[in-house]
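Q: What residues go here?
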């Protein structure tokens, strides 16, 4: 594990970053930043289906030690939790932030200052949590943060419901992609997250993320510096959905180098407590089957959470 080059955005010219920022801002009015394409004029102080308006809403920014070990390493992950979400998951475990949209709207300069503060505190990275609906605002703030001395790698920690055009505009900016791959079953995606066409959109952007950053790369301290790490939360009673996700990820690279984080941490939250099928944790037998599939498919890079 060798030390990696500087964060990608440090290698892009200011003119290039500003061009990307402008292109993303154009997608805000009317808003087509995500597959919902709700067409709301967010720059005119309207709010999209995600709850986002002209400014990014921040719920909190802090050092987080509960992420995957390669993101936490020694200093912790510098997380910026963004309010609202373009998914409406009825089982969301962060629902006060994503669904109830707790947070404060901030100007780009304030957002840049948060990044610098986390760097000063010793963060290993800047981890944008649920960033999809604020892509334009985050890149605008990044330009300011770079001028102020930001040097940390960027983590794009998303629900995986993205537009391919938008992810292409992040090429060379994002260092570590951390998307969810929630569903291979579109009927399930529609019922549980109100996300039409989730699997096709998700597979297209994960394939593009892989093209951009490739396998997960760590430095000599075990901290991620570049690459793709895909999360999947196993849902109770939905093992075929999980099987489909794992098969896609296994087929993404013939050498099985795609790092995965398969999670057993599901618990009934938000509106899942009112859903008979989701109002329980995983059984030992379900997790045993998922673990067997992970090994069978050769997905040895990454993490298999303990039940």
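A:
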């Amino acid at each position: 594990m060798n030390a990696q080059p500087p964060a990608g955005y440090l290698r892009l010219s200011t003119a290039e970053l500003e061009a990307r920022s402008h292109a993303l801002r154009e997608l805000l009015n009317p808003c087509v930043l995500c597959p919902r394409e709700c067409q709301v004029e967010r720059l005119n102080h309207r709010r999209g289906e995600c709850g986002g308006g002209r400014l990014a809403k921040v719920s909190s920014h802090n050092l987080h030690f509960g992420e995957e070990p390669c993101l936490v390493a020694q200093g912790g992950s510098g997380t910026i939790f963004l309010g609202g979400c373009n998914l409406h998951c009825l089982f969301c475990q962060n629902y006060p932030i994503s669904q109830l949209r707790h947070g404060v709207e901030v100007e780009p300069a304030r957002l840049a200052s948060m990044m610098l503060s986390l760097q000063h505190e010793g963060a290993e990275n800047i981890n944008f949590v649920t960033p999809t609906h604020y892509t334009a605002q985050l890149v605008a703030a990044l330009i300011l943060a770079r001028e102020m001395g930001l040097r940390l790698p960027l983590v794009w920690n998303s629900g995986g419901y993205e537009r391919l055009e938008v992810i292409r505009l992040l090429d060379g900016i994002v260092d570590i992609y951390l998307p969810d791959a929630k569903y291979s079953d579109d009927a399930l995606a529609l019922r549980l997250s109100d996300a039409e066409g989730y699997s096709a959109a998700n597979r297209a952007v994960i394939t593009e993320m892989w093209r951009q950053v490739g396998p997960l790369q760590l430095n000599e301290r075990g901290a991620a510096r570049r690459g793709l790490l895909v999360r999947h939360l196993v849902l109770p009673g939905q093992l075929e959905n999980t099987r489909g996700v794992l098969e896609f990820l296994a087929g993404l690279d013939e050498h099985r180098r795609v790092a995965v984080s398969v999670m057993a941490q599901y618990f009934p939250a938000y509106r899942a407590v009112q859903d008979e099928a989701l109002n329980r944790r995983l059984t030992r037998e379900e997790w045993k089957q998922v673990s067997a599939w992970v090994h069978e498919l050769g997905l040895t890079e990454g993490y298999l959470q303990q039940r």
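A: Context that may help when evaluating the design: The mean pLDDT is 96. The longest strand covers residues 224-233.
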